[in-house]
Amino acid sequence: MKRYQRVMVAAGLLSGAFTAGVYAEDVLQRVDAYLRPDFQIVLNGTAVQLESPALVYNDTSYLPLKELAQRLGANIYWKGDTKTIYINSRINPEQRPDEQDTTYEALELSNPYSAMMNYLGSDYPVLLTYNAKTSNYGLYYREKDAKRMGIDTSGLAKAKDRLTNETFVHEKELQKRWRQAPKQVYASGYEAYVIADELHPKKLGLLRSHIKGMTLIKYSDVEYYTKPIMVEKDIDKTDTYKFLYLETVRMKNVPVPQTRYKLAELRLTQDILNPDSYTVNITNTYDLLLEADKREHPEEP
């Protein structure tokens, strides 16, 4: 029989029953369980590779809650002082499909940034921007982030960003639907950008270190400055991330610097001999202005 890795797990079990309105105390009990990396996970018909293997205890399989919830479109929040796990679905059950004949306001990124926003007790990564195409003051939320927060965006006025080709909703429109105003979360060691959906501390550190090294790169008479905007984990590809940033190029004897919004694909590669070691590489880089021109003029070479 094939051996499987055996682990000891602290499981929270409720002792006793409800009597006279008094709840029994939680008791921690150590149990035997088994890690099953051979288990195959198929989500909505597609095989997925979870970073943490399934765990089996008493013939019941346990999967990593936060990682699985993200793939299902939910957000998990742990509140340690009350020992409570909050599970919020991405979209309200009553949300209707978006109208097919939506007319979009023209939008082009202006001072975009990412932030963790707290909404109804949970923290969500959000891409926000102003609009360079209009005098309409105020922030625009990326629509898919608003939906992830559980905000119904159907029927609201929307804007389509020319560069990313993504849909945004002005905060005044979202106010019609949200139950409270989201508040930005400032964590210890706060960076001026968010890495969304990555939970592994070491991987987070490697990504931040690599991005920091991209801040200023010099080649002869050319300097490249990188301003990170947002990093998002690609859940369809293992250890792959989409990196949105603003690149400023300064060249000697050229008075005006060139600025471009770019989207790069970052990939972590695991060392075969040392599984705890990774290298970070950029596998693809796209100039978003050039990509927008291709979409708008597909007939041109």
From TrEMBL:
It comes from the Bacteria. InterPro entries: Cu_amine_oxidase-like_N, Mao_N_sf. Residues 42-87 form the Copper amine oxidase-like N-terminal domain. Keywords: Signal. Residues 1-24 form the signal peptide. This is Copper amine oxidase-like N-terminal domain-containing protein.
